[in-house]
Amino acid sequence: MILILVVVVALSFDFTNGFHDTANAMATSIATHALPPKTAVTLSAVLNLVGAFLSVQVALTVTNSVVRIQQADGAPSPDLVRDGGEGLLVIVLTGLVGAIVWNLLTWRLGLPSSSSHALFGGLIGATVPGWAGARCTGPGTAGSRTGCWARWRSRRSRRRW
């Protein structure tokens, strides 16, 4: 279930990334009439797609050096896959949600901002409790990193709407 939620939220982030970064990248070209709007948006879409396939070095640096959610060989950290990978998915999910909220906030306020930086900030923010050694203890959590989230989810699923 959480995997499906992560995929849906990731696609939502891609959508906000598209309209947010296109506006930032093409505003000058459109405002100066260097490119017609349709051509500028098409060019931005093509280059965003090409850029996604050219390099993953920034993503590797973030996951290996900044948030340290994988080992040097690229395998996920063992403590994040102990619970079937749910801990890793929660980190990705919260990072994506944080980035979407930031994208929408800056878009609504008309502030230029980078969606990539928003995503990195969301991922870093999602891992800060783990750096601080935060644990949630209580019935059924066993002090796990994602115990608080799991306990909240189980309480929420028992509610009747």
Radius of gyration: 19 Å
**Total strand count, please?**
0
Give the tally of structural domains. 1
Residues in β-strands, percent: under 5%
Q: Total helix count?
A: 7
N- to C-terminal separation?
20 Å
What is the helical fraction, as a range of percent? over 70%
For the sheet with most strands, the description reads: none
Q: Output mean pLDDT.
A: 76
Low-confidence stretches: 138-147, 149-161
Going by helix content, strand content and strand pairing, the class is mainly alpha
Oligomer: single chain
Secondary-structure element pattern, one letter each? HHHHHHH
Shape: elongated
Describe the model.
Helix content is 71%, strand content 0%. The chain is built from 7 helices and no strands.
Chart the SSEs and their pairings.
Blueprint lengths: L1 H30 L5 H18 L2 H10 L11 H4 L4 H24 L5 H17 L15 H12 L3
Helix pairs in contact: 1-2, 1-5, 5-6
Question: How would you sum up this structure in a few lines?
Answer:
By secondary structure, this protein is mainly alpha-helical. It contains seven helices and no strands.
Could you list some keywords that capture this structure?
161 residues; mainly alpha; 7 helices; 71% helix; elongated; disordered C terminus
